[in-house]
Automatic annotation (TrEMBL):
Record flagged with keyword Zinc-finger: no
Protein name: Transmembrane protein 130
Keywords of this entry: Membrane, Signal, Transmembrane, Transmembrane helix
Signal peptide: 1-22
Transmembrane segments: 373-395
GO cellular component: a single term: plasma membrane
Residue span of region Disordered: 442-463
Recorded superkingdom: Eukaryota
Species the sequence originates in: Mizuhopecten yessoensis (Japanese scallop)
Amino acid sequence: MKLYVFIVYFLVSFSHPEGAYTRIPGCNKSYVGIRGKRINTDFLPKGPEVEVREISDEYRLEIKNTGPVVLDSRIDFMAKMFNKTGHLADSTSFLYVWNNDADFHELRKEDNFEANMTQTYSFVLPSQYTMQVCVYSKEEKLTHIKYHLVAKGGTKFTLTSLLNGKIDLKQSLSYQKHKKVLATNIPIDFSVNLTDKFQSKPTSSFHWFNGKTLLGHTTVPKFVFTLKKAEKMEKLSVSVSTSLEDEFVEKKGEWSEDVQVKDAIQGVKWNLSGRSSVDVNNLLNLTVFYKASNPTVICWEVCEAKKNSSYCSNTTCESPLTGNRKQFDVQVGFPSVGLYHIHFRLENDVSQQHYRTGVVHVYATDSYSSHGYAIPIFFSCLGVFIVLVSSIYFVRMKRKPHVETADFDFHPSLNREEPHPIITGIKRTFTHQFFQPKHLYSSLQQPRTSARSYDSMSENGPL
């Protein structure tokens, strides 16, 4: 079979040495048909072999095709007639004459403002060819029908020896900067879309490769796999073999794509210089650690921590980090006194992560200093007040009115003009509490009483 195809190709190339550039017969000025005969099946005598140099601008012809296609597959040609206003022409009938320089087969067909034609090319050489379309309007006479040329045009189409299609690589990533940069450890959907259409249903097999390593074999045009190693360039490819059993034809095709593999951002940690407050005139140091493939960039903004506030400052970004460094040290400023969050994001080619710090208290230097001194002063005053109240309490306890006391002037040397008893009591209390610790300890060992004891004197000595 292959030898037969080769012989046909050889004969075609020998008989048409110019290949795809062999001249197509030009559009004739008119065709004449015998009334009552079908125009697309009967032979039509041609008019003079003279090309029309000027065609009325009443109509405009647009021609398209579904190429490129592989040999032995189907290719569709579409022609549309438009009037001066750009709308589809409303004529009931046109004659379309299709000519090509691949097999030089001519097809005539009556149709309305839209005409379609399908061809299958087998015994021609793979190359680019031209399909020419001549469009005629119909004029009915008493004994015959005359067709006048109203539009002509052409379209290039390509026939290939290999299957046609396109491969696609997809990952379920929330962020992907470049389509050809993939993430590690995330499933990759590898697929191929074959565009060739055959008359009969083909049977295909697909072999999937990473470089020269075979990843797997399927009978469907899809394969799922993962890549483990980052910072590498990989060549992913698929080899397809399609068989047409009824026609004993086998077609092949191969597609490949070079991709880069990187690690997504993970393991993010940060700290705020060990504190959560800063003077409004100073900058707060934010240190961020991460694990990912570089280049990586950090951007941040300052947002108020109030529930009903949506204020955020302008976004600021650092230059991307490259190499092996995985730490950002940024300085953040604040617009005014208040409570704020720092919103920041990390971004590389395959991921984007958003984070928010805790509340940062931003204060003014003067107000913060006054608040700092207020608390110590308050507690100092409170301590002095407690000591004074305690002293007064002890003095009053010692001078209760129901305890009888005697005032004997055993010590004439006492100065009766000493200070007020309350002040004297406070003085003695302070002296007793802070300057006589031993006496304090001994007094704690003896039972306390509010009564005073006195020594009585006798002539013979103490009683």
